[in-house]
Write a structure and sequence with these properties.
four-stranded parallel β-sheet, 4 helices, globular
Length: 95
């Protein structure tokens, strides 16, 4: 089974890096990208991904807001900021 992934990050270099990393993983298909929380909601509704790789710290609607709005069971929060770990666990993150 192929897992269809939407990569969301406001930084183009971060998105590109994640897409490159995912390209090396079998059974993963990157079906789209988004640079803002609002765009992530639009792309999620349009593409129906199985998994979101979701940046936490974005201007406007942040990753937590996106995750709550889409109600998706499979979200991987991505961030370079350690202070968001506690908030991720508050959002029922596993690890």
């Amino acid at each position: 089974m192929t897992v269809r992934v939407l990569v969301v990050d406001d930084e183009a270099l971060a998105r590109a890096r994640l897409v490159r990393m995912l390209a090396r993983v079998e059974d993963i298909e990157v079906i789209g990208e988004a640079a803002t929380g609002a765009h992530a909601l639009e792309r999620t509704r349009e593409l129906q991904p199985d998994l979101l790789l979701l940046d936490v710290d974005m201007p406007g609607l942040d990753g937590f807001g996106v995750a709550e709005a889409v109600g998706m069971p499979l979200v991987v929060f991505t961030t370079a900021h350690a202070q968001y770990a506690a908030l991720a666990f508050d959002a029922d993150a596993v690890d």
